[in-house]
């Protein structure tokens, strides 16, 4: 598991680029609405590819070839904006969004395959912890180098995308091949429907609403802090990275907390706490922004929310791994990626126009409603 955990640093860097840097970079050439649609295009492509990647990884019994292809694509997409061309920037944005969300299926399946001995909560907790801690490291890179130049920042980030993949390659067992029944070779629509039991449907509902809120919030968070609170972009990125660090630290304790409080209860409470914080911040929005510490008030809210997100990230993946049979995990996580990606694609596309019409308060309010609905869905997973 250590090689898989270290390899997930790549995912942390790719998501950090998408969440912290991509929208500000695209806004240099495009309007906020068009920037949102570029990211949405990559996410929609990932939604279409996710089940296919999952199906083929189940069929051949291997995950690493697909993950390796996404790593190379992510590396290329990170370097494209250096060309200082609007077409290249748009293509890089599409590629990065596509790769970030295409990683979800095969890497989650890889973690579930390797974590059988240590347990799903422990395995996903370690991996999600590494993803979020590496996200914090990426924010430090951006903060340190962004003022020096965009090109050197992207070069440094591209190294963080490419190099960690060495670890899962070195740690992979020789001739790794999943044990699965012969029927997997003839996966049909009926087999896919069999995955969709009632608990799984409630799980996907939870994912849709939760990731609608996460996808609508995170890509615009640095823009919110820099425009509404007069915080510099590099400082906003650093605080955003601090929230991912807290999420990562929390994720490492997922197995311990789930054992103490119960997996389902911890999942529901985590989402409920995030929703409550969002309600409070929305109610006090005007008063908080008018104060001298407006930026730090916003940062404090997101730091508190990141504690709940740390548990949610790990528990959601571990829950799905337990709800389906091992030889159907690739397809299940592929279907899961559809719900996650489509919700975020819709959210990102809507938020650009919503911010223009209602401001950032409308964005926060809508995302809060999403977390409320996610908590209600989580409570129905049996």
UniProtKB/TrEMBL annotation:
<dbReference type="InterPro" id="IPR050171">
    <property type="entry name" value="MFS_Transporters"/>
</dbReference>
<keyword id="KW-0472">Membrane</keyword>
<dbReference type="InterPro" id="IPR011701">
    <property type="entry name" value="MFS"/>
</dbReference>
<dbReference type="InterPro" id="IPR020846">
    <property type="entry name" value="MFS_dom"/>
</dbReference>
<feature type="transmembrane region" description="Helical">
    <location>
        <begin position="333"/>
        <end position="352"/>
    </location>
</feature>
<feature type="transmembrane region" description="Helical">
    <location>
        <begin position="200"/>
        <end position="221"/>
    </location>
</feature>
<dbReference type="GO" id="GO:0022857">
    <property type="term" value="F:transmembrane transporter activity"/>
</dbReference>
<feature type="transmembrane region" description="Helical">
    <location>
        <begin position="32"/>
        <end position="56"/>
    </location>
</feature>
<feature type="transmembrane region" description="Helical">
    <location>
        <begin position="124"/>
        <end position="146"/>
    </location>
</feature>
<feature type="domain" description="Major facilitator superfamily (MFS) profile">
    <location>
        <begin position="199"/>
        <end position="382"/>
    </location>
</feature>
<feature type="transmembrane region" description="Helical">
    <location>
        <begin position="63"/>
        <end position="80"/>
    </location>
</feature>
<keyword id="KW-1003">Cell membrane</keyword>
<feature type="transmembrane region" description="Helical">
    <location>
        <begin position="233"/>
        <end position="254"/>
    </location>
</feature>
<feature type="transmembrane region" description="Helical">
    <location>
        <begin position="86"/>
        <end position="104"/>
    </location>
</feature>
<feature type="transmembrane region" description="Helical">
    <location>
        <begin position="266"/>
        <end position="288"/>
    </location>
</feature>
<keyword id="KW-0812">Transmembrane</keyword>
<feature type="transmembrane region" description="Helical">
    <location>
        <begin position="7"/>
        <end position="26"/>
    </location>
</feature>
<feature type="transmembrane region" description="Helical">
    <location>
        <begin position="358"/>
        <end position="378"/>
    </location>
</feature>
<keyword id="KW-1133">Transmembrane helix</keyword>
<dbReference type="Pfam" id="PF07690">
    <property type="entry name" value="MFS_1"/>
</dbReference>
<dbReference type="InterPro" id="IPR036259">
    <property type="entry name" value="MFS_trans_sf"/>
</dbReference>
<feature type="transmembrane region" description="Helical">
    <location>
        <begin position="152"/>
        <end position="170"/>
    </location>
</feature>
<dbReference type="GO" id="GO:0005886">
    <property type="term" value="C:plasma membrane"/>
</dbReference>
<feature type="transmembrane region" description="Helical">
    <location>
        <begin position="294"/>
        <end position="313"/>
    </location>
</feature>
<protein>
    <submittedName>
        <fullName>Putative Major facilitator superfamily MFS_1</fullName>
    </submittedName>
</protein>
<keyword id="KW-0813">Transport</keyword>
């Amino acid at each position: 598991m250590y090689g898989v955990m270290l390899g997930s640093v790549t995912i942390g860097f790719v998501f950090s680029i998408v969440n912290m840097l991509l929208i500000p970079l695209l806004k240099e050439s495009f309007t906020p609405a068009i920037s949102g649609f570029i990211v949405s295009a990559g996410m929609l492509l990932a939604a279409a590819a996710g089940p296919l990647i999952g199906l083929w990884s189940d069929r051949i019994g291997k995950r690493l070839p697909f993950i390796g292809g996404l790593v190379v694509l992510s590396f290329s997409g990170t370097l494209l904006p250096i060309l200082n061309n609007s077409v290249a920037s748009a293509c890089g944005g599409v590629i990065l969004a596509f790769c970030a969300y295409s990683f979800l299926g095969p890497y989650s399946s890889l973690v579930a395959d390797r974590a059988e001995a240590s347990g799903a909560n422990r395995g996903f907790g370690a991996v999600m912890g590494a993803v979020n801690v590496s996200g914090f490291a990426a924010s430090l890179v951006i903060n340190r180098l962004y003022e020096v130049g965009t090109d050197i920042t992207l070069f440094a980030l591209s190294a963080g995308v490419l190099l960690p993949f060495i670890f899962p390659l070195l740690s992979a067992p020789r001739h790794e091949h999943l044990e699965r029944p012969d029927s997997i070779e003839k996966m049909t629509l009926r087999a896919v429907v069999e995955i969709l039991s009632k608990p799984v449907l409630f799980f996907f509902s939870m994912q849709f609403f939760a990731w609608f809120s996460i996808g609508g919030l995170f890509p615009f968070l640095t823009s919110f802090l820099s425009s509404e609170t007069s915080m510099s972009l590099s400082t906003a990125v650093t605080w955003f990275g601090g929230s991912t660090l807290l999420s990562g630290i929390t994720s490492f304790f997922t197995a311990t907390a789930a054992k103490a409080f119960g997996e389902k209860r911890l999942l529901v409470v985590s989402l409920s706490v995030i929703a409550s914080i969002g309600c409070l911040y929305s109610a006090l929005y005007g008063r908080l922004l008018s104060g001298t510490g407006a930026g730090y008030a916003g940062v404090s809210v997101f730091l508190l929310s990141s504690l709940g997100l740390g548990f949610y990230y790990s528990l959601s993946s571990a829950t799905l791994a337990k709800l389906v049979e091992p030889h159907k995990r690739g397809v299940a996580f592929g279907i899961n990626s559809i719900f996650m990606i489509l919700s975020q694609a819709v959210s990102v596309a809507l938020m650009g126009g919503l911010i223009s019409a209602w401001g950032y308060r409308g964005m926060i309010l809508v995302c809060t409603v999403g977390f409320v609905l996610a908590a209600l869905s989580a409570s129905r997973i049996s």
